[in-house]
Amino acid sequence: MQDTTESMQSMMQEEYLKSLDGIEDGQLVTGTVVQVNNETVFVDVGYKSEGRLPLEEFDEVPAIGEPVTVLIVNKEGKGGQVIISKKKADVKARGEELKQAADDKTPVEGKFVKVINGGFEVDLGSDYYGFCPLSKADITRTENPESLLGISDYFIIEKFHGGSKLKSVVSRRDYLEKKIKENREKFFSTVKIGDVVEGVVKSFTSFGAFIDLGGFDGLLHLNDMSWGHVSRPRDFVKKGEKIQLRLINIDPETKKINLSLKHMQQDPWTTFEDNFKVGDVITAPVTKMT
To answer: What is the pLDDT of residues 71-85, one digit of tens each?
Structure first.
């Protein structure tokens, strides 16, 4: 009887050890949520024992059967239990993503969280932070740094460091310049004269207004604002206003774009002869004196 008991214990120990084959401390594995209570999430990672995670490591309460990536902290913890961590897995996975993004110069998401000497502290997620110099925070000069706080956008990692905070250097300007170039190339290759485009009124000049089409500008000339007389551009469009315009000229060589607001409406002269005939007496307001 004793031999049988010892034999069963030996077999169980062998099965347990086999279940640990192929895993190492520090390894990322994907497990499945098998049970959730008020404080703990139990995860089956495919081995003899289930791992346990504090519920606070999740943004939302996970569902039974939901996959979750964890890090093996200790494959044989106290009592033979596998010790796992979701938080450490998130940090390791994000670090690998950021390193790869730095190598490939692909954009990553980040958020301006703090103004510091010479620039900003940018939250890159999972306890990773980067330093964005003031000159690389935007396309134009940043007059009020505090105005960018809380803004989430994409950044290019110029230098990545997985250790101490703020040794990684990021640039939002590089991302914006790349995006503007892509937007401009797409615009010139797909849009044709007569198409309706959408833009935002950016600034005014004595001869019209410049319209932001996605980081590059088109001109809305004074003469193309209305079929009637125009003396002040601000009477027809407002700065920051999103408007639809018709493309009336585009030059791929000079990159000049001319837009029209009046061509969004029918030319009144096309119906003039239908409404009036020679000899008619009409009443009309005076619009201009020379």
So the answer is: 988 887 777 788 999
